[in-house]
Amino acid sequence: MAIPTTLNIKYTCGHTQGTDLSHIPAGRRKAHAYGLAKNKDCTKCFAKKNEAGRQQWLQQRNAQTLAEAEVFEQTHELAPVEGSEKQIPWATRVRYELLKAAMDSSAVSETTYNNSILPAARTIVKASWWITNSDTAAEDVEEIVTTAPVTEHIETENPF
Ligand SMILES: [Zn+2]
Predict the structure, then answer these.
(1) Do 124 and 148 touch, CB atoms closer than 8 A?
(2) What's the 42 CA to ligand 1 centre distance in angstroms?
(3) I need a surface site. Which of 11, 62, 124, 159 has the fewest CB within 10 A?
(4) Separation between Cα atoms, residue 10 and residue 103, nearest integer Å
């Protein structure tokens, strides 16, 4: 009788899953299954935990970038962006990442950055504009910020 290649394993998460162990030599299959049952979650729970970990990592990274973006906003005398509660942190990050990319790019001179990009960027406070243009390449940042539509200022809400 053939030795089964698929074993039902009860994983540490409590789920039982038929597991293909055909890649494990028959003589070691039971021991391998025992090891999996003792140490591993089923594939669904493993994927779920991985996804949760990934989301958490993304959130942490976004929070970190936002903190950097807020410092950048102050040191570069940029006005706070205007938009919805969800758009503001997003656009603040995007603006920081775009300007930082332009600043660090060898294709953009310091003069261009200081005399063209930065002054133009200061006039763009619309969060949605930054979000829409978030995938702009560093060398194209000057062109998009200097050709952006002029934002009409709402005097009562925006002191700038
Ligand atoms: Zn499970």
Answers:
(1) yes
(2) 4
(3) 159
(4) 55
